[in-house]
Amino acid sequence: MANEPEINEEVAAEATPARRDFLWKVGCAALSIAGVEAAASTLRFAKAPVSYGPAQRRMLGDLSRFPPGAPVYVEDAGVFVLRDAKGMRALSATCTHLGCTVRTDRENGGFICPCHGSRYDSEGHVIAGPAPASLPFVRVDQDRRGRLVVDLGAPVEADHHTKVG
Length: 165
Ligand code: FES
Description:
binds FE2/S2 (inorganic) cluster; 6-stranded antiparallel beta sheet; 10 strands; alpha+beta; Rieske Iron-sulfur Protein; 2 domains; single chain
């Protein structure tokens, strides 16, 4: 091969360590920069102001709106308010399938979802799919003026009643 350049073995032997040294320094510098950036990101995350999102409490209104018996739907809160001898409860009206609003099933009792036909009994238990889970009960309280307030972010057991006076 007459056109191949001649390789000066001495130059090659000296250049290779210099190149390695250069690449090592560049690699170390890149890792240092990445480390500093990761540390800075962690600090920014740790010091970020905490937000719990919009308030989950909704005013339901005076007790007189909720006589014992049939559930009363409160659209602003997306809950059914149930009142019986033990007190008050609030049942989410958000279908556990894809989030449509369920409505009372006047023919069969309980609740029915208009989107895909899920059915729930009067306690929110699924009796026909595709809903994967029961409707959750959420906490309901009385404020100082006796009005009902629901906390949509506070699920409670189905037998949790709020006594009202
Ligand atoms: S959203 Fe209710 S059944 Fe699909």
